[in-house]
Structure formats: structure tokens, C-alpha cells
Amino acid sequence: MNELDAILRTWRGLEGSERASVLATVVHVTGSAYRRPGARMLLVPDGRRVGSISGGCLEGEISRKAWWYTESREPVVRVYDTTSDDDAVWEFGLGCNGVVHVMLERTDTAESKELLDFLAKHRRAGQAVSVATVIGACNITGQRLLINGAGNVCGGALAGTAIETALMPHVRDAMNLKESRLVHMAGTDIFVERVGVPTSLLILGAGHDAIPMAAIAMQMGWRVTVADGRPTYARPERFPGAESVVTMSGPDLLRGIEINESTAVVMMTHNFPLDKRLLARVAAAHPFYLGMVGPKNRAERMFAQLGIEQPEGTHAPAGLDIGCGDPASIALSIAAEIQAALSKRQGGLLRDREGPIHAPAVEVGAMAQALLPATGRPEYCETQVGSNV
To answer: What is the dihedral of CA 324, 329, 334, 335, to 10 degrees?
Structure first.
């Protein structure tokens, strides 16, 4: 299940005192860090953690102190500096060599409820949204602007203010470019986050090799639909957790199945005539990824017989070259290739990559001098530097 979906599902199930759980959100990163801005973790009073904000080095510290930090019921931003070479920092488990800014807020406040309800509503509708959150001004830290996929403001304490007017161009840029950013303006730092929807994966074919393909995709938080013309194969119990398992029939085999530019499609029916019937419809829908299992010349012959060119985003044979020989490793290679397509990467070796693994966080505007202490980092209301205090 997608991390955000798991957090929202857990939050909806909380009752009584557990509603005062703490939501931790990474709002800015400089340098190296395991998770990027937008990563979230829900801390429930009974000790449960849903999601993560690091590779494990910050979760324990934040879990121990989150309720103390938010005792005033006001959101706070903590800054964890892991760039030091001091042995104490490494012993503390903070050897990522980056600075991570984490917002903590109680989930039973009106502001947090509005945010979580907003996200849940648009997740159900399959719509990407934007959330702009003040993270660098003590008196309004945590105030927000909530914007739907159409670019309309739907709520938040910043709605109708001068900040909304100045901020909306940055919100539109974040939505159009599909990237979050930190905006510095008027002495205030604002995290503008684009919250996308989970990747949709359509697996055409429900044979034995489709089972690990679906399982890996669901582990990555993708929403999976499996379709096959054989009722004995297209059974929900074979694909637990799949969004939908469909038995294809009739003249329109893909009737009721949505394919668009946000969909990845993997064709693994191993049936040439059936694949050819499906391919014309799939190619016309322009999925961002079209993977076809089988030899390269099989796909070339299919496209030639249909009289259409291979669309951009076609991968035939599907998968990265990792030396696959069994259904699980083939599924792994295809899932990795889809992720590379999502990230606009080539899927090479990280050790051969020049420059940082992650693109640096996008920052817009000049950081206000009033927020710049001697360290050159934003001086938020609450600051926790990598130490065990």
C-alpha cells in the first residue's frame, strides 16, 4: 500500500485519545538524506509508526520526543543536522551527511484534520493536489493553503490572504512541473508540495509470472489492475491487494479499464493474437510506459501487422538488463524499469552516477536575512541539531 494511503487509513481508524497522534513531515532537505521532502510518518500513542521520514536514524528520536515537542498543540519544525564529522553524530545514527527539516503536528487539531480530510478526499478521486505550508515563521508556522487539481483554493488559513496571491504562481509551477519546492518570500519560508496519486499499473495477463509482478508493484504502493480472458486465472484470490482483477470478454476486451498518460501497462499474456487485439487500443491511450514481455522481433512484427509505429515509452522486451531467468526476477526488472521511467532516469548503476543521487530541493526566492543565523540555516521556532538532548 502507498505510504500516504496507509497513513490516511490509520488516521481514519483512530478514536478517542489516539486522535492526538503526531504527523511528522519532511519539509526540506539539504545535502544527502534517505527520504525527500513530502515523506511522512504517523506516530500513534500506542507506539505504532506508519510511514517513515528517514532510513531509520530519525524515527526513534522523533518518536520519543514528538508529544513533548507538540505539547503546546502548535506545529513545530525540528532541524536535524547530520553533516558533522563529530563521532557523537555518527554514534547517534545520523550518518546521512544532510540537514533534514521535519514538521511535527498533532492530528486532532482543526488544521491537521482539514489537511488529512482534503488529502483523503482527493486520493479517493484520483486527483493530484498541492499543499502550501508555512514552515519558517514562528507566528504562522503550520498555516496552509489547500489547492485542488484544477488549481482552485479549497481551504487553509492562508486562503484569502496576501500570501495566497503571491504564492499561487509557485503553486502552478509545482503542479505543472510535478515537483515540490521551498519558497522564500516576505520573511517567510513556505513548503509548496505537489501531492501526486499512486502510479496505476495495468497487467494484461494473469499467468504465474503476473503474480510476482503484481506483488512487487503493490509493495511499491502502486494501484494494480490485472486483466485476463481466462476466468480460472483472473481470480482476486490470486492477486490479494489488487485494485481490480478483470475477466476480459466481448468485442471490447478493455471495456471499463482506464488507460491514460499516467498509466503503466505490462503485456504478458504470452498470446500473440490476443496481444495484437489489445495493443492497438493500449497504444492509442498513450500510457507513459508500455512494456511487452517477449523477444524484440515479436513486438516489431506485431506493430508492423497493425500498421502503427511503436509509441514513445514502449519497452520491448520489457525490463532492465539484470540477468533475469525466473518470474520473480523478471518482475523485479520490469518494476525497476517502470520506476526509472517515472523518475526520468536511465536505470544505470548509482556508483557510476556523476553528481548527487537526488536532484537538490527546488528553492525559489531569496531567503530572508531575518531568518538567517550565523550558521546560514533558517532559524525555525524549534531546532534540534543532531544530538541526543
So the answer is: -150
